[in-house]
Amino acid sequence: SKMVAFFELFLLFSVLSWAMEFYFDLRQHRKLCQKKLPQELEGIVTEDEFLKANDYSRDKISFEMMSSGINITATVFFYLMGGLLWMWDVSLFLIKPFGFSEENEIWQSVAFCIVLYAKSSIESAPLDLYQTFVIEERHGFNKQTLRLWFMDQVKTFFLVVVLLFPAVAGGIHIIIWGGKDFWFYIWSFCLVLVLVFQTIYPQVIQPMFNTFTPLKDGSLKTAIEDLARAHKFPLKKLFVVDGSTRSSHSNAYFYGKQEIWRWLADLCVKSGGRIWKQQACCAVRHSQSFTSWKR
Asked: In 60-70, which positions are buried (b, 16+ CB within 10 angstroms) versus exposed (e)?
């Protein structure tokens, strides 16, 4: 039947997609096994820095290959064993005590999405813990405590539950109401959701996980502003985020359309009491390079 053919094609595409990514990761892993400093990097990094970076990247990509293999295997078996149908029945079981039945498909769909997210979170937790507290810890990057990791999971689950209900309920209601033209209405609804989430994420959601403080006046702020001006980048505000509470990786990213909010990881700004102006500007320029602006 058409449904069986679609199901088999979906599984086939999933496996082929994983196989292609695994092949590329394997090639990259072999490249990372080289011990000799490339000629192009001589004078830029030391041999010790090169070997440390290779060791970290090799550990990361090995873990990604292992975790992706586990995930694709679990996913295929889950679908083949009728996991989605079972979870649909579980969602019905959960809403019945509240007086709902299978006729209340909106409520059952919301419950189904929550159960599916809970399943995904439980499955990914051991791998996430290993990556954070073993791999990142081994290479000196992890700054996160087990309590902070757990609180992040609780906050994320709470946000998913709160935000998922209006999104799923609204989407299903539109599909029922829209008739044959439902695709246009659901597309418009999804577009609005994306714009709303992009607006509330930096203002409401992100501050639940991090603290943002305005970057103080000084040589670093001046250098970043000069860099933005040189590339006609519409920079308006600069904030420092307490990224060191979770990781010692440095990063920078931007948000906005009319106004650009540039958020720097605090490790970009200070380390050992001295400012890393050049490194911070490199992080900013790297983030800026992902977006092209009309001139």
From this structure: bbeebbebeee
Residue 1 is classified by DSSP as: -
Structure token pair of residue 146 = 């087990």
**Helix residue spans in 100-250 (DSSP H):** 105-130, 136-138, 146-178, 182-200, 219-230
CB 252 within 8 A of CB 286: yes
CA 202 to CA 145: how far, in whole Å? 24
Q: Which long-range contacts (CB under 8 A, 24 or more apart) does 109-115 make?
A: 109/168, 109/169, 109/172, 110/164, 110/165, 110/168, 110/169, 112/87, 112/88, 113/164, 113/168, 114/160, 114/161, 114/164, 115/87, 115/90, 115/91
pLDDT tens-digit profile of 63-93? 999 999 999 999 999 999 999 999 999 999 9
Asked if 290 and 239 count as a contact pair (C-beta separation under 8 A), the reply is no
244 closest CA partner among 132, 142, 138, 148: 142
Under 8 Å between Cβ of 252 and 264: yes
Segment 95-129, tens digit of pLDDT: 999 888 888 888 899 899 999 999 999 999 999 99
Residue whose pair of structure tokens reads 């394997």 in the numeric block: 26
| 239 touches 214 (CB < 8 A) | yes
SS3 92: helix
pLDDT tens digits for 137-153?
Answer: 999 888 889 999 999 99
pLDDT of residue 162: 87
Indicate the pairing of strand 235-241 with strand 260-265: parallel
Model confidence pLDDT, tens digit, residues 179-223: 888 999 999 999 999 888 888 887 888 888 888 888 788 877 787
| Count of all residues that appear for the chain in the document | 295
